[in-house]
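Help! Submission page says 'invalid entity' but I think these are all valid:
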Amino acid sequence: MNAEIIAVGSELLLGQIENSNATFLSSELSKLGIDVYHHVVVGDNEARLEKTVETALERSDLLILTGGLGPTKDDITKEILAKVTGRELVYDENTEARLHAYFAGREKKMTENNLKQALIIQGSYVFPNDHGLACGMAVDVSGKKVILLPGPPTEMIPMFERYTGPFLQQELHTKDQIQSKVLRFFNIGESQLVHEIDDIIESQTNPTVAPLASGGEVTLRLTVKGTDASENELKLEELKQKIVSRVSPYFYGEGEAQLHGIVVDRLQELKLSIGAAESLTGGDFSSTLTEVAGSSSVFKGAIICYSNAVKEAQLSVPQEVLTKEGAVSKRCAELLALNVKKLLKTDVGISFTGVAGPDSLEGKSAGLVYIGIAVNDNVEVFKLQLAGSRKNIRERAAKHGFYYLLHELSKEKVDE
Amino acid sequence: MNAEIIAVGSELLLGQIENSNATFLSSELSKLGIDVYHHVVVGDNEARLEKTVETALERSDLLILTGGLGPTKDDITKEILAKVTGRELVYDENTEARLHAYFAGREKKMTENNLKQALIIQGSYVFPNDHGLACGMAVDVSGKKVILLPGPPTEMIPMFERYTGPFLQQELHTKDQIQSKVLRFFNIGESQLVHEIDDIIESQTNPTVAPLASGGEVTLRLTVKGTDASENELKLEELKQKIVSRVSPYFYGEGEAQLHGIVVDRLQELKLSIGAAESLTGGDFSSTLTEVAGSSSVFKGAIICYSNAVKEAQLSVPQEVLTKEGAVSKRCAELLALNVKKLLKTDVGISFTGVAGPDSLEGKSAGLVYIGIAVNDNVEVFKLQLAGSRKNIRERAAKHGFYYLLHELSKEKVDE
């Protein structure tokens, strides 16, 4: 089965936003073993969208269209599909009910055009939208399958993950199963990682190994194809062990695991509470940690000590440290970690101080970062020299914080 | 003149990387007044690439292909173009010289396949690659223009900016200039905004009005075409005034302006310092505010009071308030804003408390948010009921914080 992904929206052709939907869907379809042969982007233009759909129906078994399901006049995807396939547009009761409930709940009045979002192509299978108003749908067209999804990734991605993905899985009913395992690494470059396991990558055919670098991390996707699920799983596990044994210091988790999620799990296991003192990162560390549902069981709070006055008054960093060694110093990081731990009565304290840039600070150049980690009575300070934009430096500093924290916590014992 | 952007590379169809080249090129072409009607992504497959190029030559005046110019076997773009257009591939002397110089400089020996990167389609105009090895080129094909650019954005973008852009400008020799203005709105849905100005959108031809919703915001892009730049600017400004007068409460800025950037500017104008007390948002507000370079001139710090213990100990919220009215209450938001302002000795205090979910808290359901804003002696609390995932609720709460803050600050006078 080969697929084509069609994004509808003039804003894409104007370069206002990226077609990240195509990237997400391609990666999901490849997991399902569906080959994607074409991405197409077309504007909110009836003639060109119609032609695009006709061409796609000739050459592809599966069409996924994103965008153009909204309430405004330039949202025409359903209308064109109905025209090309010679079907009626009808109201979907459930979606209509959701619309009314949505506006009732918000004491906003629903404008007439909103009802458009409850229209579906007759005979189509509906995907509910848990994060927005426009429903998605799947419809069979002369042996081909056409799927319509909303444009905003915040609506499309959860809809695909919860409804469309499983729906496709069922439709495929292939005997071969594609299974994959993603291994996650931090603090090692893609080229170095590939270099370390080059022979493994070369010699592998099933499972295959595909490296990918993004957001300062490197992942390896192991993909296996076979009829026996448990045998597939076994092959993946064997290969994983083989790889991890080579580069264990950098390996931190599998699948969707994220450094901050693992840190929360680990703190919960160890029954340790944590507090943070953030200067450089300005709240980025705490904000990321508290993205994890249930983080409140371990995270008590933080002091964002952006100004030296706050470092002094709230976190008792002596003035002479700030004047002599500076706010960006090993000593300051150490004190911030120890004192925030004491102030918030936690078992662990972590601190971030550094120069985010663009300008230098205290005669120190952008990218210099100190991360202090105090666990019980022991405190460590890690020094980094990061490159990149202000945003990158802050984000990567926070990520390194989670990474070093994991290393420090690995020294702790779970008390029974 | 209408254009089509064709990206060549299987990694795009596997979802390993995003087609950011198409986004960049679209935005550049629209500045040149060239309409982009199609984006296409096709893999490193001869038959499909050939068909894609043929289709594009039928429907588009300008083709820009990115990728597939490298030294490896799966780089086939030039070969296919030569085949479709019936031309020879010949070596470009300058590019060949650059290749030899590159490898000489690195004491690496050049492998035979590297020479492939000096091959150009006979009769084409060459764009040098200042950041890599594969040159770009432009070739005329039966009245159409075909441009080939390297895939890596680090090579393609500088090549376009320095060589391809100016080349196109010359080719166009149009007197018409395209100018556009982006108006930014918050706290109003796309459908409601469009509803409010429907008649304006309908009646406009030059400038045109295009709405776009993303990240909880709505933007309107006003685009005008004309030979006289200042007259264009005038038309845009007139239309802007007409629109803003209709929906002024929701309008907050133009172009790349962002709520948090405007808040920092406004605080600097007013010479007001700010501190935050973040429970619900866990540092998201402060982290966003401190993304702005120079924010340290107004932002002193914050207390992330995730646990009630910290709300009590650091921000003096009386226990009876937490037990009777709860941490998620108007009163708590009020006290947090007032007390963080006092604690950190700032002019403005802002607080966030609420239920991020997924679970309810204190019998209050996910999405209930209170934002407290204390400016000098005056304190306001804003109540919100947000929908969506935990992440969305937190992010949108922080954004609303900036939005309400802007409204409160608009009441303040700049003291001369």
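Support: the input was valid. A stray whitespace character was the problem, and the output above is from the cleaned input. Chain A has three domains: 2-172, 177-254, 259-409.
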